[in-house]
Write a structure and sequence with these properties.
Number of strands: 3
Order of helices and strands: HHHHEEHEHH
Radius of gyration: 22 Å
Distance between the termini: 30 Å
Shape: elongated
CATH class of the largest domain: Alpha Beta
Strand content: 5-15%
Strand order of the largest sheet: 1-2-3
Number of helices: 7
CATH topology of the largest domain: GMP Synthetase, Chain A, domain 3
Mean pLDDT: 81
Structural class: alpha+beta
Length: 149
């Protein structure tokens, strides 16, 4: 996966795809609904913005919904702290906002768990000693059985 998206992420100032993949978990669902990661802007090579930092810090660029602009300014420090904690170093020193429309996030629908009959049939079929693997295979098998497979 890294090879497939590496060049695109590098163009956006990222070597860490987890900021995109786990954005709601990093900043929280309330912020993620109104703010999207756009890019990290790094200072020119050789420039140091913080004398105590081993590496120069970046500016986090977020695309935000216009109605969320004031609240985003208030939450900027929290977002910066969460991203730095996620990455494990003081990567972000500033946050900048770009107001504009946000892409719609797909709504994940919750799938009902398989019924007891399908689970029982799947349990009969799965013959695995490892408990976690067996449970996962039983859930998968039950879904396949219910789907008519």
């Amino acid at each position: 996966m890294r090879e497939a998206v590496g060049a695109t992420l590098a163009a956006r100032g990222l070597s860490e795809s987890s900021l995109i993949a786990h954005w709601p978990e990093i900043v929280g669902l309330d912020v993620a609904r109104f703010a999207r990661f756009e890019r990290l802007n790094w200072p020119p090579r050789g420039a140091k913005t913080d004398p105590e930092a081993a590496r120069p810090s970046a500016t986090l660029i977020l695309r935000i919904d216009g109605a969320f602009a004031l609240e985003a300014q208030h939450l900027a420090k929290l977002v910066m702290e969460r991203i730095n904690a996620h990455l494990g170093w003081r990567c972000v020193a500033k946050v900048a906002f770009r107001q504009g429309p946000l892409p719609e996030t797909p709504v994940r629908r919750r799938v009902a768990p398989p019924g007891p009959e399908a689970r029982a049939r799947a349990r009969e079929i799965v013959q695995v000693e490892d408990e976690e693997l067996r449970d996962a295979l039983v859930r998968l098998g039950a879904r396949v059985i219910e789907a008519g497979g």
